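Session log. Operator J.P. requested a structure for one protein chain; no other inputs attached. Running the standard single-chain path with token output.
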Amino acid sequence: MFKLGKIITKYKNSFLLFFLILLSFLTISFSTGRNNFSIKNMGTTVFSIFQISISSTGNFITNTFNSIGELKKLKVEQEVLLLKVQEYQIRDRNFIELKKENNRLREQLDFKSSADYNFESAEIIAQDPGNIFTTFVVNKGSINGIERNMPVLAYQDGLQGLVGKVFEISTYTSKIVLIIDDLSYVAARLLDSRYDGLINGLGTRHGNMVMNYVSKNANKSISEGDLVVSSGMQSLYPRGIYIGRIRDIKIPEWQTSLVLEIEPVIDFTKLEHVLILTGEK
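Structure written below.
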């Protein structure tokens, strides 16, 4: 009896289900007014119920597997679409870069056609690891007619700006030293007030320079933001090339001249192409 009680307790849900099925069958039989109740009919009914349950379970499993298959298919399609989107994004970026490159080259061509000098266009291909902030290498050399100390300019944001000069030459490449190098000196002139001075690079990352030997009398007629150009007093750089703008004005009491901090008009960190001045037209 104890074991029978444990069995009933363990499978009480199953017994309850069987009892409910039997009760439903008896109710249906009596409600139809028939008295032809038999074990055979009851067995058929119970079997039919089990068949329906099994069929429903099978359909559920089949639909589940079909859904999983559809999800995998959708995931594959999503990955393909994402790859296409990435491809289109890369193409769009390349198109934008080509458009910018085209605009830069068009500006250089327009500048070259209107300038009084002959230029050789060159592309920056490397930076000197020993002096990474103030020198770089271009893809033109002696085979292209490049010579040492030739001035180097760039056309950027609508301005022609002084970049530096050719320092070393090989057959196919040249090393350019920038005007921000601490060994670089450029004879300069304040564009509006016409005061002269000498610009010297500081050799620092931010790229500023100093302009010395500017008369103290210039303090009354200059201000921050004024443009500075090459004076042409040296044979190396032509006259009137933009160099930079005044960023700060210092008036040392023990000196007879001003000291001006100059910010270059050319952003050297964005340079990709330069123009090497090869001679007058």
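Operator note: The mean pLDDT is 79.
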